[in-house]
Amino acid sequence: MEIDRKAFLESLGDADAIKKMDSEARADALEHRMLAELNTAIASRQNGGLQESNKAESSQFESGKYPTAAEVEAQIETRTYRSDAGFLMVLCTGANAKRLAPMPANPTLLDFFKLRFMDTANHVLQSANLAMKNGMSEEIILACLLHDVVQELIRTDHGWWGAQLFEPYVPKKVTFAICYHQALRYYADPSVGYEYPDLYRQLFGVDYVPPAYIEETYRMVRKHRWYMEPRMVAVNDLYAFDPSVVVTIDPFLDIIGRHCKQPKEGLGNDGSPVAHMWRTIIRPDQPL
């Protein structure tokens, strides 16, 4: 996916506002924009003739008409949500929220993909599809399929949150890969064909430096026996923003069946340490 560098930087505010953002915040802003443009492009093609509201929404993203960082900061005390809330709370397209379809009484992972992971599904399905085409292990394919869906709930440190969300239900190697893909995306590994993205240099400058905790995490993971799992999630993550590609979940159903525990009570109803996270995704409009 081609990103308009000028429009993206303008969306962050003036030079002083951009300078105040740490590199992790700028990287998250980039991923947010790429998700939004991917979903808008796919929706445009699938819908054929867009209705006027969708045309206006698409035009907004094409023209780069986003609030500046200074304008966003000025809004903090005027609203009742934080900007790093997940996409179920604040849609990545900037459109008004729509009434969500009710979930089944005993929801499975597939139900969440169909009814709640609307903003992240296109990207993670493409990522898993790339991993499958590249001959990755089933653990890596599953990690690619799940690595970003927690952004429907929360965006900050989504690797760690995502690993926690799935920890009771998938192999430890999968949660390790989900957790640490976030840190590895900043560090090249030519042995597997992962170079530091030129996109980062173009958008953030040659002096782009991740926060200290990301650097410390990278050094730890680089020495770990499972290093290659999160590394391959990063490899199959970067290029999974192709608006010409639509992937369904069907090719991954067998992998989900072999590696995911589906509680009979349903996700969110099984009393696990993370059941509350699944319930929040089920009922994001619940005020208390």
Give the topology.
Blueprint: H1 5-12, H2 15-20, H3 23-47, H4 52-63, H5 69-74, H6 109-115, H7 121-133, H8 138-146, H9 158-166, H10 172-184, H11 198-204, H12 212-222, H13 228-235, H14 253-259, H15 275-282
Question: Could you explain the architecture of this structure?
Answer:
The protein has 288 residues and is mainly α. The chain folds into 2 domains: 5-78; 109-282, Hypothetical protein af1432. It is built from 15 helices and no strands. Helix 7 runs antiparallel to helix 8 and helix 9 (158-166) packs antiparallel against helix 10 (172-184). It is globular and about 50 Å long. The protein starts with a helix and ends in a 6-residue tail after the last helix. The model is unreliable at 49-63 (pLDDT under 50).
Which properties best describe this structure?
Hypothetical protein af1432; globular; mainly alpha; 288 residues; 52% helix; 15 helices; single chain
Main sheet summary: none
Low-confidence stretches: 49-63
- Work out the helicity level: 40-55%
> Can you tell me the CATH class of the largest domain?
Mainly Alpha
Average pLDDT reading: 83
The fold-level CATH name of the largest domain is Hypothetical protein af1432
Total domains, how many? 2
What overall geometry do the principal axes of the alpha carbons give? globular
Specify the number of helices.
15
Order of helices and strands: HHHHHHHHHHHHHHH
Q: Which structural class should the secondary elements be placed in?
A: mainly alpha
Question: CATH architecture of the largest domain, please?
Answer: Orthogonal Bundle
Q: What does the radius of gyration come to?
A: 19 Å
Structure summary, number of beta strands = 0
Query: CA-to-CA gap between the ends?
Result: 39 Å
Task: Give the percentage of residues in beta strands.
Answer: under 5%
